[in-house]
Each structure stands twice: as C-alpha cells, then as structure tokens.
Amino acid sequence: MGNNGFLLPLMVFVVVLSNSVANLSAESPNATIDQLALLALKAHVTHDPLNLLATNWTSGTSVCNWIGVTCGSHHERVTTLDLSKMSLIGTIPPHLGNLSFLSRLNIGFNHFHGSLPMELANLSSLKYINFRHNNFRGEIPAWFDSFTQLHSLLLYSNNFSGVIPSSLGSLSNLEKLILYDNDLKGQIPIAIGNLSKLKRLYLDNNQLSGQIPSAVFKCKALEFLSLTDNVLEGSVPQEIGNLTRLRYLYLDNNNLTGQLPSALFKCQELEELNLSQNALKGSVPQEIGNLTKVISLHLYRNNLTGKIPTTIGSLSVLRYLYLGYNSLTGQLPLTLFKCQELEDLLLSNNSLEGSVPQEIGNLTKLRWLNLSKNNLTGRDTDNATDKTQ
Ligand SMILES: *[C@@H]1O[C@H](CO)[C@@H](O)[C@H](O)[C@H]1NC(C)=O
Ligand SMILES: *[C@@H]1O[C@H](CO)[C@@H](O)[C@H](O)[C@H]1NC(C)=O
Ligand SMILES: *[C@@H]1O[C@H](CO)[C@@H](O)[C@H](O)[C@H]1NC(C)=O
Ligand SMILES: *[C@@H]1O[C@H](CO)[C@@H](O)[C@H](O)[C@H]1NC(C)=O
Ligand SMILES: *[C@@H]1O[C@H](CO)[C@@H](O)[C@H](O)[C@H]1NC(C)=O
Ligand SMILES: *[C@@H]1O[C@H](CO)[C@@H](O)[C@H](O)[C@H]1NC(C)=O
Ligand SMILES: *[C@@H]1O[C@H](CO)[C@@H](O)[C@H](O)[C@H]1NC(C)=O
Ligand SMILES: *[C@@H]1O[C@H](CO)[C@@H](O)[C@H](O)[C@H]1NC(C)=O
Ligand SMILES: *[C@@H]1O[C@H](CO)[C@@H](O)[C@H](O)[C@H]1NC(C)=O
Ligand SMILES: *[C@@H]1O[C@H](CO)[C@@H](O)[C@H](O)[C@H]1NC(C)=O
Ligand SMILES: *[C@@H]1O[C@H](CO)[C@@H](O)[C@H](O)[C@H]1NC(C)=O
Ligand SMILES: *[C@@H]1O[C@H](CO)[C@@H](O)[C@H](O)[C@H]1NC(C)=O
C-alpha cells in the first residue's frame, strides 16, 4: 500500500472539515475499498427479485446510504451489512473480506450458496454472523477462529456438513452458537468446553454421534442447550449439574441410555426439560420436585419405571407434563392435582393403576388429557375438562 504517505494528511483534513464537507471522506481510498467490495457482492448476486440492489446500490451515492448498509459514526466505513430476507440468490465474493470495519454481517433468509472464501477471515472486527436459512454447503471453515471478537455465530438451516471444527473453541467471546438444521456429523468437539461465555448452544437436527462430552458442561454460562434429533448415545453426564443457569434443556430424540442423572435436579433454573424419545431407564426421582420453575416436562417414550413421585406437586408452574410411553406403575399421586397450571397431561401407555381421583376436577386449565392404555379405573373423570377421546 504505497498510498499511506498521502492518506494520513487526508484523514486529518477530513476530520477537521467533516461537518462542512460531508462527502469528502466518501472519496477517500478506504471508502472506495468498501464500495468496490459491495459492488463485487452485487455482481455475484444472480437473482434479485425485489430489485433492491439493482436500483439502490449505485456508485453515484455513498455506500453509507445504500440499503442494508450502516457506516460508523466517525468514519464512512461499513460497519453493518444486513441483507436479510431479500430473496437474493448468489455467492459470496472474496472482496467482502475487504470490509475491514465490518462488525455485523446478516445475510439470513436468502439463497446464497457455494463455499465461503477464505478472505472473509480478514474481517477481524466481526461480532455477529448470521447466515441462517441459506443454501451453504461444505464444511464450516476452520478459519472461523479468526473472528476473535465474535459473540454470535448463526449458521442454522443450511447444508453445512462434516464435523464441527474444534477451532471454534478459541472464540472466547462467543455467546451464541446456533448450528441446527444442517448435516453435521461426528462428535461434539471437546473444545466447545472452552467457550466460557456461551449462553446458547443449539446443535439440533444434525447427525452428531458418540457421547455428549463432559466438556460441554464446563460452559457454565449456558442457559439454552439443545441437542435434539441427533444420534447421541451413552448416559447424560452428572456434570450437567454444573450448569446452574440452565433454563432450556432439550436432549430428546437421541439414543441416550442410563438413568436420569441425580445432578440434573441441581439445575434449579430449568423451565423446559425434554429428554423424551431416548432409552432412559430407572425411576423418576423425588428430586424432580426441586425443579420448581419447570413449565414443560417431557420424558415420554423412554423406559422409565416406578411411580410418579409425590413431589410432582411442588411444580406449581407446570403446564405441560408428558410421561407417556414408559413403564410407570402405581397410582396417580394426589399431589399431581396441585399442579393447577397444568394444560396438557399425557400419561398414556404406561402401567398406572387405581382410580382417577375426583381432584382431577381441580385442574381447571386442562385442555388435553390422555390417560389411555393404562390400568386405571375411570371413576370421576367426568369432572375433568377432558377434550380427548
Ligand atoms: C485506510 O486503509 C489503510 C490500509 O488499508 C489503513 O492503514 C488506514 O488506517 C485506513 N484509513 C482509514 C481512515 O480508514
Ligand atoms: C436506497 O435505500 C435507502 C434506504 O431505503 C434510501 O434511504 C435511499 O434513498 C435509497 N437510495 C436510492 C438511490 O434509491
Ligand atoms: C479487495 O479484495 C479483492 C479480492 O480479495 C482483491 O483482489 C482486491 O485487490 C482488494 N482490494 C481492493 C482495494 O479492492
Ligand atoms: C486477506 O486475506 C488474504 C487471504 O486469506 C490474505 O492473503 C491477505 O493478506 C489478507 N489481507 C489483509 C489486509 O489482512
Ligand atoms: C440440502 O441438500 C439436499 C440434498 O443435497 C437438498 O435436497 C436440500 O434441499 C438442501 N437443503 C438446503 C436448505 O439447501
Ligand atoms: C463440575 O463442578 C465440579 C465442582 O463444582 C468440578 O469439580 C468439576 O470439574 C466440574 N465439571 C465440569 C465438567 O465442569
Ligand atoms: C439407536 O440405536 C439403535 C441400535 O444401536 C439403532 O437401531 C437406532 O436406530 C438408534 N436410534 C437413533 C435415533 O439413533
Ligand atoms: C425398553 O426396554 C426393553 C427391554 O429391555 C427394550 O426391548 C425396549 O427396546 C426398550 N425401549 C426403549 C424405548 O428403549
Ligand atoms: C432436592 O429434593 C430433595 C428431596 O425432595 C431434598 O431433600 C433436597 O433438599 C432438594 N435439594 C435442593 C438443592 O433443593
Ligand atoms: C382441589 O380443590 C379443592 C377446592 O378448591 C381443595 O380444597 C383441594 O385441596 C384441592 N385438591 C388438591 C389435591 O389440590
Ligand atoms: C393391567 O391389567 C391387565 C388386565 O386387566 C393385567 O393383565 C395386568 O397385569 C395389569 N397390569 C398391572 C401393572 O397391574
Ligand atoms: C364433580 O366435582 C364436584 C365438586 O368438585 C363434586 O361435588 C361432584 O361429586 C363431582 N362429580 C362427580 C361425578 O364426581
């Protein structure tokens, strides 16, 4: 860059006169770099049905006035590029890596495809990447670890394949890692455990296999953890109890075995717990009553045995209880009918016995009740707001 000698005085000049000569910095070489980068992107868009870029991204006006573009307040450099929901079809040109001040990049809900050029690794100021709902395929590039300031990486609903790169574990500022609805395989990398600020980890609907590494439970800031619809196996590690801020835990539709880990009931902030459609066995422990903030409790289609614990009555904000398709025995505990907020109560396909107590009439918010395929006697059920067959 032999231009530096003349750039510095120009910069000072621009700063001093920027109020009266607002457009001058647009002509500085650096603003031109951004313009060239965006025009290259425009040229790589093969279909623009709303004609947004075609009519709006014209070289006559400053890039800062282009639709979807935001510049910094102190310099006319692009800091945000938001082209979401424009129905664009195209590819990402390497020139985009020249937007050196870019902090937010959102191209979600379009049809961008192809591979991601390595030049993007130059975007070291990026804090937010949103590529959701596009048609990207191939591996998630290992060089994503260049984005050292990144707090959100949203790549969901694409066709990314291969393994989750371990290098993502070095993104020490990452708070959201959302990779669901892709075609990712292999194990969840242990390096994920290094993400000490991670609050949301969504890896659902991929083909991740092996055990859930204990390292995941080193991410003590986690509030949302969803690994639904994979082929994970082994038991749920006791270290789950370290996630004391966890509010949403979705591990359903995997191949998990073993018992419900007792440490799970240390996660007292849990609002939604879904471990259904696995092969869990053993009983539902009394400690379930510790989860006093639980709104939604899904344990259906496992191999759970024993009685419904009486402590269930402590779940005073419980609205959805799904325990069907297990091997639960014994009577319905009376305390169950203390759960006044219950809307859905599904206990079908178990071996529950005894009568249905008239207290079921206390569940005034009930909209869906299924007690079928048990050994219950049907007395008193006509007091319930039963809308099932
Ligand atoms: C312009 O670009 C050069 C090299 O890319 C860089 O060193 C300089 O800081 C930039 N100046 C401004 C005002 O952005
Ligand atoms: C481009 O779009 C922006 C934002 O909608 C608008 O302010 C600007 O006037 C448009 N420019 C042109 C040349 O149409
Ligand atoms: C921007 O990036 C492209 C491709 O990576 C490169 O060819 C070009 O020289 C870069 N610089 C400018 C000023 O456009
Ligand atoms: C941008 O990326 C390319 C390819 O990764 C690299 O060769 C180049 O040095 C980088 N440029 C800057 C300014 O970092
Ligand atoms: C992913 O790839 C499959 C097959 O290659 C294709 O049918 C599907 O539409 C793709 N999905 C997306 C979101 O691009
Ligand atoms: C969980 O916490 C215990 C003590 O609080 C600690 O010894 C253990 O290493 C932690 N495990 C993980 C995976 O973070
Ligand atoms: C679980 O494992 C069994 C046997 O190993 C296999 O047949 C089944 O498809 C697996 N289910 C899922 C959801 O991975
Ligand atoms: C439950 O256990 C039985 C016998 O041990 C087994 O045949 C069945 O596949 C298991 N069901 C699930 C959902 O794991
Ligand atoms: C959890 O529940 C058990 C039994 O219901 C109780 O003894 C224990 O004190 C509870 N633990 C916490 C941390 O609330
Ligand atoms: C059911 O409701 C009645 C009257 O509102 C109350 O006295 C009783 O304790 C309730 N039973 C249970 C199990 O909550
Ligand atoms: C349920 O009832 C059937 C027949 O009515 C009986 O064969 C079975 O042993 C009963 N199961 C339990 C768990 O009571
Ligand atoms: C329905 O509930 C009321 C009061 O809760 C009770 O008096 C009545 O006997 C119940 N009806 C039946 C058929 O059990």
Automatic annotation (TrEMBL):
<keyword id="KW-0547">Nucleotide-binding</keyword>
<keyword id="KW-1133">Transmembrane helix</keyword>
<dbReference type="InterPro" id="IPR032675">
    <property type="entry name" value="LRR_dom_sf"/>
</dbReference>
<keyword id="KW-0812">Transmembrane</keyword>
<dbReference type="InterPro" id="IPR003591">
    <property type="entry name" value="Leu-rich_rpt_typical-subtyp"/>
</dbReference>
<keyword id="KW-0732">Signal</keyword>
<dbReference type="GO" id="GO:0005524">
    <property type="term" value="F:ATP binding"/>
</dbReference>
<feature type="domain" description="Disease resistance R13L4/SHOC-2-like LRR">
    <location>
        <begin position="218"/>
        <end position="321"/>
    </location>
</feature>
<dbReference type="Pfam" id="PF13855">
    <property type="entry name" value="LRR_8"/>
</dbReference>
<keyword id="KW-0433">Leucine-rich repeat</keyword>
<dbReference type="GO" id="GO:0016301">
    <property type="term" value="F:kinase activity"/>
</dbReference>
<keyword id="KW-0675">Receptor</keyword>
<comment type="similarity">
    <text>Belongs to the RLP family.</text>
</comment>
<dbReference type="Pfam" id="PF00560">
    <property type="entry name" value="LRR_1"/>
</dbReference>
<dbReference type="GO" id="GO:0005886">
    <property type="term" value="C:plasma membrane"/>
</dbReference>
<dbReference type="InterPro" id="IPR055414">
    <property type="entry name" value="LRR_R13L4/SHOC2-like"/>
</dbReference>
<keyword id="KW-0418">Kinase</keyword>
<keyword id="KW-0677">Repeat</keyword>
<protein>
    <submittedName>
        <fullName>Serine-threonine protein kinase</fullName>
    </submittedName>
</protein>
<keyword id="KW-0325">Glycoprotein</keyword>
<keyword id="KW-0472">Membrane</keyword>
<feature type="domain" description="Leucine-rich repeat-containing N-terminal plant-type">
    <location>
        <begin position="34"/>
        <end position="71"/>
    </location>
</feature>
<feature type="signal peptide">
    <location>
        <begin position="1"/>
        <end position="26"/>
    </location>
</feature>
<keyword id="KW-0067">ATP-binding</keyword>
<dbReference type="Pfam" id="PF23598">
    <property type="entry name" value="LRR_14"/>
</dbReference>
<dbReference type="InterPro" id="IPR013210">
    <property type="entry name" value="LRR_N_plant-typ"/>
</dbReference>
<keyword id="KW-0808">Transferase</keyword>
<dbReference type="Pfam" id="PF08263">
    <property type="entry name" value="LRRNT_2"/>
</dbReference>
<dbReference type="InterPro" id="IPR001611">
    <property type="entry name" value="Leu-rich_rpt"/>
</dbReference>
